[in-house]
Amino acid sequence: GVFAAQAQVTISQVYGGGGNSGAPLKSDFIELHNNGTSAVNLGGWSVQYASATGTSWQVTTLSGSIAPGGYYLVKEADGAGTQPPLPTPDAIGTTAMSGTAGKVALSNGTTALTGACPIGNVDYVGFGSTASCAEGSAPTPATSNTLAVLRAGGGCTDSKNYCADFATGAPDPRNTASAPNVCSGGGQ
Q: Torsions phi, psi of 125, nearest 5?
């Protein structure tokens, strides 16, 4: 992102298959991680979602803070299935995310973003090959009903090339009660 030098909170996991056939969890979610060495107050911030090629952004406001090395779990829409719920979320939205491709932005404001490729965000992840924008050379691999995309290093890896920084894996939602993973050197 444009503010990469001071980005210490990153999007560490994205999952849009919640409640779909074969999914291990009922809800879509976005997970954040604090790569820095001091707590960050998320009041007045938001996570925002758009479809893979979309220009309309859905806003979920955040509150509270995220400790150094800590995680922050944003629950989004439930699917139709009867799968287990997420661990206790730190913020709750109603956005129904795609199970395969889309765009997620972490913003230090709550006004809906505009355009297909808004800039100036704290972090930005295009997931799935059809995402029209991404940080780095290409979007992350595609998610599925059974796979999330997870940032390497438990959230610490940030080379600004997200097709390399993220890999698919079983959804593993972590919240502010989860054990912290403090990054060496305060992230990359």
A: -130, 120
Q: C-alpha 103: how far from its chain's center?
A: 9
User: What secondary structure does DSSP assign to the chain, as a single string?
Assistant: -TTGGG--EEEEEEE--TTSTT-SSSEEEEEEEE-SSS-EE-TT-EEEEEETT--B-EEEE--SEE-TT-EEEEEEEE-SS-PPPPSPPSEE------SS-EEEEEESS-SPPBSSS--S-SEEEEESTT-S--SSSSPBPP--SS-EEEETGGGT---S-HHHHEEEES-----TTSPP-PPGGG--
Encode burial over 21-55: b for 16+ CB neighbours within 10 A, e otherwise.
eebbbbbbbbbbbbbbeeebebeebbbbbbbbebe
Quick one: which of 93, 94, 45, 80 has its CA closest to 65? 45
At 130-168, the pLDDT tens digits run: 999 988 888 999 999 999 999 999 999 988 888 899 999
Longest Cα–Cα distance in the chain: 42
pTM (2 d.p.): 0.94
Residue 7 confidence (pLDDT): 56
